[in-house]
Write a structure and sequence with these properties.
374 residues; alpha/beta; Quinone Oxidoreductase, Chain A, domain 1; 2 domains; 6-stranded parallel sheet; 12 helices; globular
């Protein structure tokens, strides 16, 4: 079938995405779903920094590629061997699915699935196939999703069925932003009631972490970012303090908390932010990072603190989540008013506005933007 999609044909574009027409919205071919695959009509897709990182080269991926990984939609057709989904079902896309067979999946850590990582790194679905093509040549899938398109074919593990009454622009935000931010709070950090938490980076993922820290009952939530508007949004979400990120951030946080926070969570994708988060963590505390810096980036660490202060540094990929388990829990919290994700939605647009959306993401004038399809 012919679909409309936003295609990246070259990486390394640093700024001025609309002027450069970094993504080209054009007609591409989408093959029917094969065994173990599902065709969906995309209803809503979020614009995330992970998409921008592919464009600017921070996260190198093969091109040409249809980007987009945070999305919701409805099932249109199922491939052979699938009996738990049917046309009309409402689904959320998962960019880090599990095969259920590798060691990581067997240990209950599907986000670290070795099979998915191998196929996604090559621009394939988890089934090992590419279903997109352009002018007769293959087009790569973005982490098994490629949701900046009217339709997508995904491997069955890349989808989670959700209740039909959730608005698509809401359920899409849970696909990446909330899974990653809330998961970092609930699963990786296991934030306890009354604890002191600092959150570095207030994009969609960071603000999801703020909402989740509030829901977890954290006693102090310090939001840190270079942009004033994002700091105000965090305060509107009931963060207890907002601090502008600068050279004095660590000193300011340690002074405010009498020695540092129990948990510092870095969600900016910046080594500088991660080092500041480590510096803000108290003796015996935990530093969590879920940001995605350039693969060549290196951080400086005071190794003695690991032992003498019994400090912990933990990575968190897609919030250490098991999506089939965690999404229903998060949707329940949303229904109770405890995870009001709409508060971070700043723009709703059509697919032809994708390059302008990347500019807004790059200059910090947007938090979460949603592409909506008719």
């Amino acid at each position: 079938m012919r679909i409309m999609a936003a295609v990246l044909t070259r990486g390394g574009i640093q700024h001025g995405f609309e002027q450069a027409q970094a993504l080209t919205v054009r007609s591409v071919d989408l093959a029917p779903p094969g065994p173990g695959e599902v065709l969906i009509r995309v209803a809503a897709a979020g614009v995330c920094h992970s998409d921008l990182s592919v464009i600017n080269g921070t996260r190198p991926r093969p091109v040409p590629m249809v980007l987009g990984h945070e999305a919701s939609g409805s099932v249109e057709e199922v491939g052979e061997g699938i009996d738990d989904l049917q046309p009309g079902d409402h689904v959320v896309c998962i960019f880090a699915p599990g095969c259920g067979k590798c060691l990581m999946c067997a240990e209950g850590r599907p986000a670290l699935c070795t099979r998915a990582a191998a196929h996604h790194g090559k621009g394939e679905l988890m089934t090992g196939h590419r279903r997109l093509s352009m002018d007769g040549a293959p087009v790569h899938h973005h982490v098994g999703v490629s949701a900046f398109a009217t339709h997508a074919v995904l491997a069955r593990p890349s989808l989670v069925k959700v209740q039909a009454d959730l608005p698509p622009h809401v359920s899409a935000l849970f696909s990446c932003a909330m899974l990653t931010g809330a998961g970092a709070v609930f699963n990786t950090a296991k934030v306890a009631p009354g604890s002191r938490v600092a959150i570095f980076g207030l994009g969609g993922v960071g603000l999801s972490a703020v909402l989740s820290a509030v829901a977890a009952g954290a006693g102090e939530i310090i939001a840190i970012d270079p942009f004033d508007a994002k700091l105000q949004t965090a305060l509107d979400m009931d963060a207890t303090r907002a601090i502008k990120a600068d050279a004095h951030t660590v000193e300011a946080v340690r002074d405010l908390t009498g020695g540092g926070v129990d948990v510092a969570i870095e969600l900016a994708g910046s080594v500088e932010a991660l080092e500041a988060a480590w510096g803000c963590t108290c003796r015996g505390g935990l530093t969590v990072t879920a940001g995605l810096p350039h693969p060549d980036a290196r951080m400086s660490l005071n190794a003695l603190q690991l032992v003498a202060e019994e400090r912990t540094l933990r990575g968190s990929y897609i919030g250490s989540c098991v999506p089939q388990r965690d999404l229903p829990r998060m949707f329940a919290l949303y229904a109770q008013g405890k995870l009001p994700v709409e508060k971070m939605l700043t723009h709703r647009l059509k697919l032809d506005g994708i390059n302008r959306a990347m500019d807004r993401l790059d200059d910090g004038s947007a938090i979460r933007q949603i592409i909506e399809f008719d």
